[in-house]
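Is this the right way to post structure tokens for a design question? Let me know if I should format differently. Anyway, here goes:
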């Protein structure tokens, strides 16, 4: 069946097969119950460079990325903006609303033309209030998702700097990479400053660790793009 979101997707973009119905928070939800969510669905388009939401702003929407890609950044107390993560088609954004958070902890930028499909938090909350059993099911599913994310976080925050850096690049390549003859190429450039923020290390140390990874063949660098050889990606 053709996804109705395809009518909103730019011609040069591919649409994710993942729909809201496929998200883990809806595991075990009956089709009859999910039809209620379809009635409050909202689609949006964003241009490259446009913000989807701003750090500190009220959480107004829960959505899945249908096409495009976004960068998540945070402004520190000294005014420095750092990149914390990247999200791809099929990823859920704004789930903090389910934990009763009221403000976005980060800013989201469209890295390319982006299409989202989701719910307004006010409509979502009202639907849960009207269906408390459904709300309990979603909370249980979200708790399981948090446990999974915490486990994944441990893989990129433990071990030596070299290990953490490789695990980070491998995770990004696995989620955002494009298959090439050399391996999985990350489709956007990553600066040493961004990598240093992502692994929590000094830029100079990251530069040295990257050199060791290149020297050992665990990563490849081509025209500002990192490539992770297929044989080194974690299974």
């Amino acid at each position: 069946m053709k996804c109705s979101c395809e009518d909103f997707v730019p011609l040069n973009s591919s649409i994710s097969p993942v729909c809201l119905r496929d998200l883990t928070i809806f595991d075990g939800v009956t089709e009859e119950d999910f039809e209620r969510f379809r009635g409050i669905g909202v689609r949006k388009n964003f241009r490259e460079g446009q913000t989807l939401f701003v750090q500190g702003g009220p959480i107004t929407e829960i959505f899945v990325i249908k096409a495009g890609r976004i960068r998540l950044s945070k402004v520190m107390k000294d005014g420095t903006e750092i990149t914390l993560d990247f999200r791809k088609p099929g990823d859920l954004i704004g789930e903090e609303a389910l934990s009763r958070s009221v403000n976005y902890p980060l800013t989201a930028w469209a890295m390319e033309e982006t299409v989202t499909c989701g719910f307004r938090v006010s409509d979502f909350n009202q639907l849960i209030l009207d269906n408390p059993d459904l709300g309990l099911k979603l909370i249980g599913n979200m708790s399981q998702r948090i446990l999974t994310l915490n486990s994944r976080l441990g893989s990129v925050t433990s071990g030596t700097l070299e290990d953490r850096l490789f695990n980070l690049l491998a995770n990004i390549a696995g989620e955002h990479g494009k298959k090439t003859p050399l391996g999985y190429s990350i489709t956007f450039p990553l600066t040493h400053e961004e990598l240093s923020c992502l692994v929590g290390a000094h830029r100079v140390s990251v530069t040295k660790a990257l050199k060791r990874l290149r020297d050992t063949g665990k990563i490849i660098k081509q025209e500002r793009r990192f490539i992770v050889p297929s044989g080194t990606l974690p299974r």
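Format looks fine. Someone answered above. Worth noting: The chain has two domains: 4-154, 161-232. Residues 162 and 208 are 9 Å apart (CA to CA).
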